[in-house]
DNA sequence: CGTTTAATTGAAAATGCTCAACTCGGGTGG
DNA sequence: CCACCCGAGTTGAGCATTTTCAATTAAACG
């Protein structure tokens, strides 16, 4: 199957998911799909970057490790997100499937070849890198200067913004959230408990991973403090 | 004066300073220079991004603020560095001169116009965005998962790598370093004292901003722990 | 020079972490 | 089918690291 990455008509894009992939082909990019089981590695840090990925189903975490096992998750990639995009030939994060996940694969080299002749594709890559950059820059402020409740609130707001339905069904564990926010899992749990008791949110269903935001106003107020 | 941004012959670049600016002109970019006094704002967060800047002399800090004054410095820009590069029309950081600083200005719109017709320039912008991204990604790990001594060690190694001479003359205050590392200025001071007493470094001259690394091996060992 | 800003150091307080106990659900296998 | 086990989550208590507050010293700058 041959598809072409198309340009959005707005000059910059609101989410990675906005990148359309259609079949009006002149600059052809070979496509593939793979499904990964829960917990399996998609690629490792420092491995050669052969592909760029788009999440079709499931969720992915990308992270860095210190030698003693401390982990920093850089981002969660949900349905529609494109990740694994690097300029160099080597990945700077490890990527793992959080749950059973289906990915669309795009050969990096093919993309490069297309970009060589097609300015539009190069600009697209630039846009995506910039969007990526914005997320990481905001996350830096969170990690450097926000307290635990502010971090968890920011996380919930971020996830809530990507969720169409009322009930957020988070695919990641408390440990994942903790490693994303630079906290311990216990601190994340305590912050969620405090927010629940304060009437900001509630757990529904049998798991504690299905969350309903009860007071978006106050949650955002905590986030943007 | 009309200059052209030229491509490096390596596929990706080790520092922003590696971007040569020469006068072999076919895609012309208008250039200008401005000098800023110590402490003055170059641009503010959310202001329209009219220019891209290159440090000719001095040093710049770029940061984000929370409403109650907490500050996160995203990067220090030293001589040769290019900053202020955004895809959108709006800056995402505030930029300030740390000391008396001379900047080279490049009109953003001119650059965009050139990039529209010149793939090489677009790829250059992409390379710079990716390099930027790498720095911020590494800094995320530091802010999320490293302790105070590891952070200060990483800062010193980073500065040391950009300094040709034996003596590092840091332009920034302890507060700046603290806001870069997500610490209090007292914690930075204590970490430096501990490293000095451990024989890793020493202060020279009358100020405490001139630092000599005595044991690069051990300093790096702390950084890469 | 004198005043202001920067840096260091100590002591007390706060925030978040570690360790530990306990609960709850969802498999798994006897 | 049910008991058990395991992973995930919550909660408490004590501990560690970092922050805050404060005092002092040193340096920079008009």
TrEMBL record, chains A, B:
<dbReference type="GO" id="GO:0003677">
    <property type="term" value="F:DNA binding"/>
</dbReference>
<dbReference type="Pfam" id="PF00027">
    <property type="entry name" value="cNMP_binding"/>
</dbReference>
<dbReference type="Pfam" id="PF13545">
    <property type="entry name" value="HTH_Crp_2"/>
</dbReference>
<keyword id="KW-0805">Transcription regulation</keyword>
<dbReference type="InterPro" id="IPR050397">
    <property type="entry name" value="Env_Response_Regulators"/>
</dbReference>
<keyword id="KW-0238">DNA-binding</keyword>
<dbReference type="GO" id="GO:0005829">
    <property type="term" value="C:cytosol"/>
</dbReference>
<dbReference type="InterPro" id="IPR036390">
    <property type="entry name" value="WH_DNA-bd_sf"/>
</dbReference>
<dbReference type="InterPro" id="IPR036388">
    <property type="entry name" value="WH-like_DNA-bd_sf"/>
</dbReference>
<keyword id="KW-0535">Nitrogen fixation</keyword>
<keyword id="KW-0804">Transcription</keyword>
<dbReference type="GO" id="GO:0003700">
    <property type="term" value="F:DNA-binding transcription factor activity"/>
</dbReference>
<dbReference type="InterPro" id="IPR000595">
    <property type="entry name" value="cNMP-bd_dom"/>
</dbReference>
<dbReference type="InterPro" id="IPR018490">
    <property type="entry name" value="cNMP-bd_dom_sf"/>
</dbReference>
<feature type="domain" description="HTH crp-type">
    <location>
        <begin position="146"/>
        <end position="217"/>
    </location>
</feature>
<dbReference type="InterPro" id="IPR012318">
    <property type="entry name" value="HTH_CRP"/>
</dbReference>
<dbReference type="InterPro" id="IPR014710">
    <property type="entry name" value="RmlC-like_jellyroll"/>
</dbReference>
<protein>
    <submittedName>
        <fullName>Transcriptional regulator</fullName>
    </submittedName>
</protein>
<dbReference type="InterPro" id="IPR018335">
    <property type="entry name" value="Tscrpt_reg_HTH_Crp-type_CS"/>
</dbReference>
<feature type="domain" description="Cyclic nucleotide-binding">
    <location>
        <begin position="15"/>
        <end position="84"/>
    </location>
</feature>
């Amino acid at each position: 199957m041959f598809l072409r990455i198309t340009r959005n008509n707005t000059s910059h894009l609101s989410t990675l998911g906005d990148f359309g992939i259609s079949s009006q082909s002149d600059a052809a990019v070979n496509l593939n799909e793979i499904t990964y089981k829960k917990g399996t590695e998609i690629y490792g840090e420092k491995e050669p970057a052969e592909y760029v990925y788009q999440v079709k189903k499931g969720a992915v975490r990308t992270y860095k490790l210190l030698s003693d096992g401390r982990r920093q998750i850089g981002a969660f990639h949900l349905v529609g997100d494109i990740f694994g995009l690097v300029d160099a030939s080597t990945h700077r994060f490890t990527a793992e499937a959080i749950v059973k996940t289906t990915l669309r694969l795009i050969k990096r080299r093919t993309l490069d070849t297309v970009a060589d002749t097609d300015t539009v594709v190069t600009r697209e890559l630039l846009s995506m890198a910039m969007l990526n950059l914005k997320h990481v820059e905001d996350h830096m402020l969170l990690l450097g200067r926000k307290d635990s409740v502010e971090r968890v609130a920011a996380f919930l707001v971020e996830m809530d913004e990507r969720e169409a339905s009322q009930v957020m069904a988070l695919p990641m564990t408390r440990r994942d959230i903790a490693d994303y926010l630079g906290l311990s899992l216990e601190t994340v749990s305590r912050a969620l408990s405090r927010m629940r008791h304060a009437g900001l949110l509630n757990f529904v269903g049998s798991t504690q991973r299905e969350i309903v935001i009860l007071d978006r106003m106050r949650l955002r107020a905590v986030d943007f403090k």
